[in-house]
Design a protein that fits this description.
Helix content is 40%, strand content 22%. It has 336 residues and is of the alpha+beta class. α4 runs antiparallel to α5 and α6 crosses α8.
């Protein structure tokens, strides 16, 4: 297959849409086949490779919490609404919430998990933790060449099979990747990081990935692993109470009583939604608050410990060092 300049991502976008300027998005060629994209007012930065004329690898990072859906895109990325494509997202690090609007249920992608959907407003991605790192594969069979479609079809990779996989769960297929799937993603990511990726290797590896995806290699989530809107709302109310009372010793039992549910149920839903136990979440919030006080004020460490909910200063200092790697006084000195 010939190497073609039309596989340069900005050229593809300009060809497919009326937006010829791609206002706000900045591109930089960093190798013969890797393009860096900075999405302007969005915090997303991606390395992009186009192994086929209608397919893009997106290796990206989102450094802060951010909501991304087709009806809530930053201005610089509105051009993406004009393009229909299949979208595979694989979590490398961090956590992303997937909301399937049509069914009113949620899933949470963590390391080694896959989501596969169409590019439409029925699925909303919310990056609920800082420093998310992901691998994406976005593609449209209709804009590939006949030769490219034939190559993929010979491996059973077709538009029809892609639609069938998504339709199994109406709007989005979510599951856990196998060790082989993870290994292929790692090989692509490593070669992008060290700039050794070549187009032939990229084509082989994405073809392997799609073959695995469409042939039941990714284990789908059980219904019990999804979260309903009601369960998520309960967890969110618990989070609000924790954030409003960081200096108060609130137990899961105290919060559950106020929310008219049992403590075990609340703990279960909270962990599903936020990825950590309630106690760990509270401790992380307290340590973050203490770190801000140490940087921004000259208040005594004992007062900061008390404000963060710790009557025992020694325990506070021990937990702070475990979190930040240095004592509170060292942290203040390093950040003054």
């Amino acid at each position: 297959m010939k190497s073609i300049e039309m596989n340069y991502f900005p050229n593809i976008i300009k060809k497919l849409t009326a937006n010829s300027t791609l206002e706000g998005i900045r591109f930089k060629r960093i190798s013969d086949c890797i393009t860096e994209m900075n999405a302007g007012e969005s915090s997303l930065v991606a390395n992009i490779v186009m192994p086929y004329s209608g397919m893009g690898i997106f290796y990206f990072g989102v450094p802060k919490k951010e909501l991304m859906s087709m009806d809530n895109l930053p201005k610089s990325m509105l051009v993406m609404k004009q393009i229909c494509f299949f979208k595979l997202n694989y979590c490398l690090n961090g956590r992303v919430e997937v909301f399937m609007r049509g069914k009113g249920k949620y899933a949470f992608l963590e390391e080694g998990m896959v989501a596969f959907d169409r590019n439409d407003a029925k699925t909303i991605l919310s990056f609920s933790k800082e420093n998310y790192r992901g691998f994406g594969l976005y593609f449209n069979f209709d804009i590939m060449s006949e030769e490219e479609r034939m190559i993929l079809s010979s491996f059973g990779i077709t538009k029809e099979k892609s639609e069938m996989l998504i339709d199994r769960d109406e709007t989005c297929f979510v599951g856990n990747a196998s060790s082989e799937f993870k290994s292929i993603v790692d090989s692509i990511v490593t070669s992008i990081d060290d700039r050794s990726l070549d187009m032939e290797f990229a084509r082989i590896q994405v073809t392997r990935l799609l073959y695995l995806l469409l042939n039941d290699d990714v284990i789908p989530l059980r219904q019990s692993e999804y979260t309903t809107a009601g369960q998520r709302r309960l967890a969110a109310e618990a989070e609000k109470m924790i954030l409003e009372n960081t200096g108060v010793h609130l137990t899961a039992e105290d919060i559950a009583l106020k929310l008219n549910c049992s403590a075990p149920t609340l703990k279960k839903y909270f962990r599903k939604v936020y990825g950590v136990p309630m106690y760990t979440f509270l401790q992380d919030v307290r340590m973050k608050k203490a770190g801000e006080y140490l940087k921004d004020t000259k208040r005594p460490i004992a007062d900061i410990a008390y404000e963060a909910g710790y009557l025992n200063q020694s325990k506070f200092c021990s937990l702070f060092k475990k979190t930040y790697g240095v004592t509170p006084s060292e942290y203040r000195r390093l950040n003054s």
